[in-house]
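Table S2 (continued). Query chain:
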Amino acid sequence: MGQGGATYAGAGVDIAAGDAAVERLRSMVAGIGGFGGQFPLDTDRFTEPVLVASTDGVGTKLVVARATGRFGTVGIDLVAMCVDDLVCVGAEPLFMLDYIATGKVDPDHVATVVAGVHEGCRQAGCALIGGETAEHAGVMAVDELDLAGFAVGVVQQGTQLGPERVRAGDAIVGLASPGLRSNGYTLARHVLLERAGLDLGDPAWQGADHSVADELLRPSVIYTPAVLATRAALGAALHACAHITGGGIVGNLPRALPDELGARLDRSSWEEPRVFAEIQRLGAVDSDEMDRVFNRGIGMALVVDPAAADAALAALAEAGREAKVIGEVTAGGPGVHIA
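Corresponding output:
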């Protein structure tokens, strides 16, 4: 009795806040407001185009972003997770769309997240052509946020990278990752924040000049431009590519190899960022478990003709990416062995 008619706002969804968020995004998103993003395909350059799509999220890295109120770089992470999958097929990213779910739309937070996506797209060389923001009142906490997206790229038919090009003896070139990127955060948070009892504002480790939060929110490297530059330099000598995400090197490198071939890697050939040693020490994490969860300092692996290894390193250096020859493809059965 005495109550007015039910409204969407009364149920917890603020359409006005959503509209305000959209207005904030107009300068960053091409074609915002339409029912579908449009992107013209260059069929003069790609006479037999094959479209390649990938979708991903940022995972529980968002828990750290939420706890600190620092959402400025998680959009870069999202782009990295999507476009760095596309380039493993040899595809150039064309465009991306994002999806943000939240308990209550905060136009400032949404704009901050999308600004990160926009920056990631700039780094990757693709367009942000649309997205969606959904308010899940009553399902998610008002300050809770989840982020996902998908990207589409293109590669000329017959030029795709992949396991069928790989041969025993091929060199494996590892591209350095300065930190966790967007993988293994459930274990990292459990060890650092729960078992070790660190605060996000504490130094990342003894003597560090940055905090635990700074380390955990370090934005993911976007490798795509460097990989494409290397492909342009090497041509057919670049055989395959593996994006090292969840599952680590041992879980992802086999995806770039034929079933009958494996890989032997030399752990001493690259420098592992300190954060991995801290997680292993503080959590008494077994080395095999570390290898299955984290990238251990290698965010992307290229499989190249051994005669082209030096050229690959030079092309990557020219593109601003630190890289090392970390191993080789081996005959005698599948599996990645790190010594």
